[in-house]
């Protein structure tokens, strides 16, 4: 099981309705994207982190492991905003407002990343997917996502087993052996995933599959008090950001 899924199942917010957590982190995400980058994005990120590390008890180490790769991608993309290509100052030159735009894009992306990761760390995908059809999403799309999600764990386990077997046979002792073993690993995983998908399709057909997967969804009441509590942080962030933006400058 992935660290995100393990934290979502073990966390104290596991029993909350996904609509409550979606309202909280979705509202903060909207604030991060719509409000001024400063201080809107910063306040949205702080509110999401406070809710996640506080009452939701998201493991900080697991959060950092999940956030470092997309954060690196955000920083890499922001660096390109610092320069201009083909302008009047030469083929490659520093953009006049590149630092401001890079900081704005990085701040919004980092805040959005915090909101999305905190939602993922508190909401198991198995609780969310069956309820998406009620929001109007096509059932076929939801089923494809659910099957892909379930197959992901099978493929990860298969990959680990094959890699361990290759390592036991000194398949990674040198660079050439590493490249050869990596190619064999990809080929073996592809063949096994294709075979697994074929067997799953046959199994569904033998069970009378008619185009829809019927799953048991635990009904959880959505309490109005919980929705109000989830709406409060995004509203406070919006009010604080707008108030900071219209406050008169000193002097």
Automatic annotation (TrEMBL):
<keyword id="KW-1003">Cell membrane</keyword>
<protein>
    <submittedName>
        <fullName>Cobalt ECF transporter T component CbiQ</fullName>
    </submittedName>
</protein>
<dbReference type="InterPro" id="IPR003339">
    <property type="entry name" value="ABC/ECF_trnsptr_transmembrane"/>
</dbReference>
<feature type="transmembrane region" description="Helical">
    <location>
        <begin position="24"/>
        <end position="50"/>
    </location>
</feature>
<dbReference type="InterPro" id="IPR012809">
    <property type="entry name" value="ECF_CbiQ"/>
</dbReference>
<keyword id="KW-0472">Membrane</keyword>
<dbReference type="Pfam" id="PF02361">
    <property type="entry name" value="CbiQ"/>
</dbReference>
<feature type="transmembrane region" description="Helical">
    <location>
        <begin position="105"/>
        <end position="123"/>
    </location>
</feature>
<feature type="transmembrane region" description="Helical">
    <location>
        <begin position="225"/>
        <end position="246"/>
    </location>
</feature>
<feature type="transmembrane region" description="Helical">
    <location>
        <begin position="62"/>
        <end position="85"/>
    </location>
</feature>
<dbReference type="InterPro" id="IPR052770">
    <property type="entry name" value="Cobalt_transport_CbiQ"/>
</dbReference>
<keyword id="KW-1133">Transmembrane helix</keyword>
<keyword id="KW-0812">Transmembrane</keyword>
<feature type="transmembrane region" description="Helical">
    <location>
        <begin position="135"/>
        <end position="156"/>
    </location>
</feature>
